[in-house]
């Protein structure tokens, strides 16, 4: 099969300008479009039936001039200003080395798409960042700061650090971050859950504020280790490597195209990890990224120059990796802001595929749920069995949920799973006066915390969403909500899921509020 050379246009994944996801209600209606936003089912039908129409090839021009003051130095390169926010990193950059790292990264791609994002912040608007990835992207093994009050996990990971710098660089705007990364997530598993995750992400926002501005995808570590772990030691080993590498490339391309379908106005920004195995097999992702001319940060290029910036064979690098990557990301964005603020660019071409479009269809996203419970959509709140204190009501105007404050109370929902079982749950989390619930599914127990964990604490009350790879065999016990939550659920299964407020006298507050449950 010749890759990257298809001369004929294929059905485009660019739906229509300004189409966005809408509520679950629209998805369940299959063909309902509200306020010029495409439902998940519309996207699903288009993917299945090859009815995509080419999107407009409009040219976008970034207004303004390049006579601007430089943006602030990255956090850890110039850590003194931020002492107390992030401790100084042990990686010491000389000025020339730091600039060289930025040049190495920037030389491998084009970045004009970033300019309108920074202009949005300059105007005082909100920039919405979404991140997909595995445990390293979620900050597993990342811990930094005073022993009694460190930052760790997602608060320590590079997306949070970069968000902090971007907010400092454009204080007049607001930078929002949702990091959906979780342990063991491969391109294929992210593909299975991304549709539901982005639907949930948009469902909690006002109509005028739906849609991410930029989506970071950092999936190489688990993709290449999946290949390594599936290698055999017999005569078929090489053949299996070829097959698995091809499958990873197919899943990755389909993931990028699906994200573009669901969020057509968002910039897709891949990050290529720098672990040993990642550097040996990074072309699995890079050839797809370069085919679509996407902006990227290839950490493998930097690690090839400075090997200590990834901790040898470890797939969960220490905090200085996250600090360094965030610094180079900041350097990259800052240099783009200075050098290309007046440059024009055209929309990227999603009309052709790198891989054979027929082979891409072997990896299909789940774009409409098989089971759907949404407290904000009355038609989806039926057939929920509640005993002992659970009730559906609004504890705040316009914010309904299934709520209980009674220990021992139980709520049951019947759920159905498809070929690649995925579960997405949204619940309310706050910094005070919330308890926790146990979720029982297929004989396993998973804890949902209503209060922010120390180190992940936010001084806000908001909807929190997790997608669970429930087909995985077991639940990985570990801190900070980074690990895998598997329930050993097979394809095409029907289950009953139970939420229970436990009889736990060590917890002062008991309140739990469930917002949504989706399955595929």
UniProtKB/TrEMBL annotation:
CDD domains: SGNH_hydrolase
Gene3D superfamilies: SGNH hydrolase (3.40.50.1110)
InterPro entries given in the database record: SGNH_hydro_sf (IPR036514)
Official protein name in the record: SGNH hydrolase-type esterase domain-containing protein
Species this chain originates from: Alexandrium catenella (Red tide dinoflagellate)
Lineage: Eukaryota, Sar, Alveolata, Dinophyceae, Gonyaulacales
């Amino acid at each position: 099969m010749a890759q990257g050379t298809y001369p004929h246009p294929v059905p485009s994944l660019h739906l229509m300008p300004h189409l966005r996801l809408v509520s679950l209600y629209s998805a369940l209606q299959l063909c309902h479009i509200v306020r010029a936003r495409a439902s998940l089912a519309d996207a699903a039908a288009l993917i299945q039936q090859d009815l995509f129409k080419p999107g407009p090839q409009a040219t976008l021009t970034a207004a303004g001039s390049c006579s601007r003051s430089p943006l602030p130095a990255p956090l850890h390169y110039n850590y003194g200003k931020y002492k107390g926010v992030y401790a100084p990193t042990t990686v010491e950059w000389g000025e020339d080395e730091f600039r060289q790292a930025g040049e190495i990264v920037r030389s491998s791609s084009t970045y004009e798409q970033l300019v309108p994002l920074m202009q949005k912040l300059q105007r005082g608007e909100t920039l919405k960042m979404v991140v997909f990835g595995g445990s390293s992207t979620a900050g597993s093994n990342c811990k930094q700061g005073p022993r009694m009050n460190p930052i760790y996990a997602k608060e320590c990971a590079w997306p949070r650090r970069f968000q902090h710098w971007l907010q400092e660089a454009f204080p007049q705007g607001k930078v929002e971050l949702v990091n959906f990364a979780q342990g063991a997530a491969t391109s294929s598993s992210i593909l299975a859950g991304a549709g539901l995750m982005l639907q949930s992400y948009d469902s909690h926002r006002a109509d005028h504020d739906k849609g991410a501005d930029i989506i970071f995808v950092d999936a190489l570590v688990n993709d290449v280790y999946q290949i390594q772990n599936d290698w055999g030691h017999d005569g078929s080993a090489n053949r299996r490597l070829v097959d698995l590498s091809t499958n990873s490339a197919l899943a990755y391309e389909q993931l990028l195209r699906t994200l573009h379908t669901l969020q057509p106005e968002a910039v897709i920004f891949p990050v290529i990890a720098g672990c040993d195995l990642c550097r040996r097999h990074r072309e699995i992702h890079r050839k797809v990224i370069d085919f679509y001319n996407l902006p990227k940060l290839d950490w493998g290029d930097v690690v090839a120059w400075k090997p200590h910036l990834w901790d040898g064979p470890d797939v969960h690098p220490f905090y200085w990796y996250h600090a360094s990557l965030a610094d180079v990301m900041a350097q990259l964005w800052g240099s783009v802001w200075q050098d290309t603020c007046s440059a024009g660019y055209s929309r990227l071409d999603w009309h052709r595929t790198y891989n054979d479009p027929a082979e891409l269809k072997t990896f299909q996203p789940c774009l409409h749920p098989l089971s759907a419970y949404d407290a904000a959509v009355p038609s989806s709140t039926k057939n929920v069995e509640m005993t002992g204190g659970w009730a559906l009501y609004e504890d705040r105007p316009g914010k309904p949920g299934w709520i209980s404050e009674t220990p021992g109370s139980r709520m049951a929902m019947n759920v159905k799973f498809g070929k690649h079982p995925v579960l997405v749950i949204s619940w309310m989390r706050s910094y005070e006066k919330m308890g926790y619930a146990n979720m029982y599914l297929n004989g396993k127990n998973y804890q949902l915390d209503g209060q922010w964990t120390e180190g992940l604490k936010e001084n806000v009350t908001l909807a929190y969403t997790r997608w669970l790879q429930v087909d995985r065999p077991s639940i990985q016990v570990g801190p900070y909500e980074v690990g895998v939550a598997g329930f050993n659920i097979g394809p095409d299964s029907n289950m009953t899921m139970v939420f229970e407020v436990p009889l736990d006298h060590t917890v002062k507050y008991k309140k739990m509020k469930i917002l949504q449950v989706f399955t595929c």
